[in-house]
Amino acid sequence: MPDIQIPPIDLGVSLQLLIVFGWAMLLLLVDLFVGAGSKRIIGYLALAGVVVAGAAGIPAWGLNGSTFNGMLVLDNFALTLNWIFLLSTAITIIISLDYLPRQGIERGEYYALLLFALGGMMLLAQGTDLIVLFLGLELLSITLYVLAGFAYPRLTSEEAAMKYLLIGAFAAGFLVFGIALLYGATGTSSLAGIAEKLGSGLAADDVAFMLAGAALVIIGFGYKISMAPFHMWTPDVYEGSPTPVAAFMSVGTKGAGFAALARLLLVALGSQFATWSIILALLAAVTMVIGNVSAVAQTNVKRMLAYSSIGHAGYLLMGVLAAGVLVFYVGLRRYESGNLMEMRG
């Protein structure tokens, strides 16, 4: 029987994740021993965990490392996003300390759920494998389903949670099917492996499966980032969710979705820029128009902010397109330089 080789694990790469997940589980245990009127203590402890996780990333600035067989990386891109997610979570916790008691929904598990959602966002920022990206997205989504309905028994909050759950499950189906097609076409779930396979060329049938899979994955992430025409859930969910949760979704979760989408398009599908850039540019234009025009007509502040965040998704898509141009032309120049060297040789 052959020996199973366990790949080396660099805990430094996943240190922030370990702190966030470990702290969230610890809060669940501490909550058992905290009285109903003292749940603010859990909030302060959660805030301390966020600060510790943020400080743990300072020595890693400028370093590039990977672990779990390259499925998880830590570079300046991921570290910057992690700090943005940590800051947004800290602000959400601070707002929630007064909001939850005032609304009569102060429960200790709220802060643990926020930390689990934070861990899901950090997985999306550090993941370089489609499986890790899916796990991060689902962890984030499941916690948000609960947080959206946290104002129970308020009917609008229950409605928001139900709508978010149904739309999230629908989007997950697109994402999983797309991942399956990409894996079938390239034989790998690694983003770098997909890029390498595309660079070496695919058979005609595999190209069709690859394009279909990429389209389905982009649709799956499109729901998460509120990209038109996959944005219709956003105003209803934002309106019904508790105010700190709506703020958290508009900043942190949108950033996490864009982090994963950017890695997919720029790392795995960078060589296919000419194919996806036109489609993404059209979607960005439609998203900006729908988000901003619809925001003007709103009379509810939360719905207005929701449509505004949809418009901002279009702006961020333009940033992904600009980065795609840079990646594509840098790769083209390297390819031409390599051919020139071969001709000279």
Q: Approximately what portion of the residues adopt beta-strand conformation?
A: under 5%
How many DSSP E strands?
Answer: 2
Distance between the termini: 48 Å
SSE-based structural type: mainly alpha
Main sheet record: 2 strands, antiparallel
Number of helices: 12
Mean pLDDT: 86
- What is the topology, as strand order, of the major beta sheet? 1-2
Give the domain tally. Answer: 2
SSE string, helices as H and strands as E = HHEEHHHHHHHHHH
* Poorly predicted ranges: 332-345
Helix fraction bin: over 70%
Shape: globular
Radius of gyration: 21 Å
What does this structure look like?
The protein is an all-alpha fold. It has two domains: 1-127, Four Helix Bundle (Hemerythrin (Met), subunit A); 167-345, no CATH class. 77% of the residues lie in helices and 2% in strands. The protein contains twelve helices and two strands. It has helices spanning 15-31, 40-56, 76-103, 109-126, 130-148, 155-186, 191-200, 204-224, 233-240, 243-268, 273-296, 301-344, and strands spanning 65-67, 72-74. The chain has a two-stranded antiparallel sheet with strand order 1-2. Strand 1 and strand 2 (72-74) form a beta hairpin. Helix 3 packs antiparallel against helix 4 (109-126). The N and C termini lie far apart (48 Å).
